[in-house]
């Protein structure tokens, strides 16, 4: 038999043999990649599809059309909606960046007294939802707020008005200032201190060194966090809903809310088109964040030794700046949260009535009388606990596939997993609503808390990756190589070596996701139904009904649960959240 004939016979025999089944590693990697794609694409594709339909996607007889885009642009007042959204996001960004940068310098780089305590308190708005902060600001600074009435009793009127774009932006700026603070503090911690020392040697004073050396080195962090805060400003719903709607100020998120959830006959084509517009804008901003993050590496200076920058001496300004900082923390953090907690234990909060005469537990007793309130608390705990575990497990698998495997598509999986950063909560909620209405067999889950678990998990995958990836990148690959040389496959190595070493990061990831799920409301308002309420949706319903006492009592429960989580993470587990 010739050589060619033998080769042909061998090939035919090889082709006839059954193909080997894919290994365990391949199944896990491709399975997780497919699950991630489905979870993230599920809410986005229906929104885009609905924007090109002439009627609701679950109705019969739909036809493709571009008319929704024209109708949206011709909608009365839509141009003003876009303008209000832009102004609100811009003012929010300016305020948050100014406050966050100043706080990072004062609390992190100077010898000001109580700087560490102020830094801890400065972060508290990021732990709470914007909805709860809005209620706190209303309780103390609203038209009938405690401090507003006190000032009006002394002067002719209060010097502030929260029912305006600047007033809304002030609340949003304070709530987002910790983001700028975190990024600036992180950037300052890796900056080479010899540059500042050189400026001091040449005779530059504290202010000149800060202005000419420190702030320019912080500019990449300031620019990146500014884009992030502008993006958040576009997505905020609670503050415009609480303070903008009563004054007739509509932004894009409240436009979606009023034409969707709050409408007796929702215009699905208009809502989906506006959501697609918001998604496109936020995608561009997230792309810009990535570009800025890549460019910032040119500005970071790292010394050859691990050195700690010497704090700037404020000299005679130490105590004046300390007093100013204490006033700011008291006015923007302590008083709004404190007033909300106090309102929960009073029947009325007014400077005209002594607090001792109105103290009561009636708000909590009334809250227990209505099943919706205990149910929303219980549902929030279940969604946060179960969702936190599920999301943490998913994040862990994605992270080790992307960063500790030879998976062919790991780069694409990493990009897909980070894409939910570009999906606003309202868009995710609308998308999951359409997806569960469109796909046969999923309708039964639409009115349960499990759709919330899925939606929250999808929306906050990037948050979990941010907690896990840094520690995974710091782990030496020698651990993996040692296990592989002993014959262990990728999954055995990951399960027996990588994941146990990653336990502290996974604990931090779970706590962060638990807190994030517990305070989330924007995604849930488009998905909840009677029986699947969470605290955020119940707070909104109670607020629209004017139940201020019940709102305060329920918000107090949320604050206490989050406070316990943050305290436990810091004190007992040694986990530092958001910073």
Automatic annotation (TrEMBL):
Subcellular location: Cell inner membrane; Cell membrane
Main location: membrane
Membrane-topology annotation of the record: Multi-pass membrane protein
The entry's keywords: Cell inner membrane, Cell membrane, Membrane, Transmembrane, Transmembrane helix, Transport
Pfam families documented for this protein: BPD_transp_1
Entry annotated with the keyword DNA-binding: no
Transmembrane segments: 27-49, 81-109, 121-140, 160-183, 217-243, 269-288, 319-342, 377-403, 415-437, 449-473, 505-529, 549-573
GO biological-process terms attached to the record: transmembrane transport
Superkingdom of origin: Bacteria
GO cellular component, one term: plasma membrane
Entry protein name: Iron ABC transporter permease
InterPro entries for the chain: MetI-like, MetI-like_sf
Record-stated family: Belongs to the binding-protein-dependent transport system permease family.
Domain ABC transmembrane type-1 per the UniProt entry, residue ranges: 82-289, 377-569
